[in-house]
Amino acid sequence: MSLRIMLKILQRHALMPALVLLQVALACAILCNVLFLVWQRVQPMVAPSGLAEDELVLVDQIASHVRPWTAAEAREGQLALSHLPGVRSASSALGLPMIGQVTVDYALKSPAGVSVGVNGYFGDGLVKTLGLELVEGRDFLPGEYGDIGVSQSSSGVPTAKSAQSIIITQSLERQLFKGESAVGKLLAVPDDPSDPGYRVVGVVRHLLRNQVDLATDGRADDTILAALRVGDTAILSYAVRIDPVMREVALRGIHDTIKREFGPLMGGESFLRIGTYAERRNEALKSARAALWLLAGVTIAVIVVTAIGIMGLTGFWVQRRTRQIGIQRALGARRSQVLRYFLLENLLIAGFGVLLGMALAFVANGLLMHFYELPRLPWNYLPIGGAIVLVLGQLAVLGPAMRAADVPPVVATRAI
Hints:
Oligomer: single chain
Family: Belongs to the ABC-4 integral membrane protein family.
Domain ABC3 transporter permease C-terminal: 299-406
Keywords: Cell membrane, Membrane, Transmembrane, Transmembrane helix
Radius of gyration: 31 Å
Protein name: FtsX-like permease family protein
Order of helices and strands: HHEHEEEHEEEHEEEEEHEHHHHHH
Structural class: alpha+beta
Shape: elongated
Largest sheet: 11 strands, mixed
Membrane topology: Multi-pass membrane protein
Number of domains: 2
């Protein structure tokens, strides 16, 4: 049967095809946006951290209620932790992966004019302690480090007289230098020509940012290490790299050392947090996992409801045309031809529904952007969602189409 005749039949009985079309359009619009939201939640979970995850212990919320900790106290604590049994290295730090209480933002601009906003981590010897893999350049030299002070009354990165040494990730290198090596090159501060900027001395393979909500769309590694030591600060944090074989010994030693070094000014341990990187990652991504399960449930519900709806409507549509099917069979139509007809008809209806659903998906995304500040839906999610709905529609119509193909010509011609 030609496409023109098929369209005429659908126009003559427009209600049932219209219901299927609208259901497919609504399912496509919902599915495109849900798939996008699911991937937004999944990306931080699957992003490589670049860290020695099994060896890393994070200590934070070492808070003084009397006065800020001094740079000397921060270094003494680092030295005490690094000499513990089972500890390979320790670094006092400002900003660490999976610790979002303190975030430091940098704005970088490449010589080509590409600007990127990134998270920054400060600390002495973080490349070694975090277990980062240097793929280009080198680690910071002792003479490159400066001190940064962050107190309750003031915060910020101090103004440098010369370009500050930084280490960036491979992802940032690709974004800022378009395939060229970044080592030895300068990065400027956007909209501040008086700032001397930053000089790249090394490149690490990965380093996950601590703003995990922003670790999407290729931004998970938008992170730098700055050659700065922690100075006076109201809250201290430490990264400690341990021997996994001596995990329990090292954890007890870390707790006892923190209590001994800082206990008199801490005012108790109610805010102190000591945990492995795996524990912190699990905690930081808890809300993302809950949202993912919710979205997965929505996706399954949309798929099931759409499949049941198409099967029900198509089954009713086949039953209404039993006599027509029987006449076709009596005139010599084979089972495969009847089956192919219904599959093609459903594909035609679903195709128009998918096109309408793609337009609805953009409208729905615009509303989500307006009311919930979600990012714009990338265009490539439209064909993915459309293809899923088309395949689902063909699978859903297969059962009714096979029943139609099995209708005996004698029974069909006697139907009322």
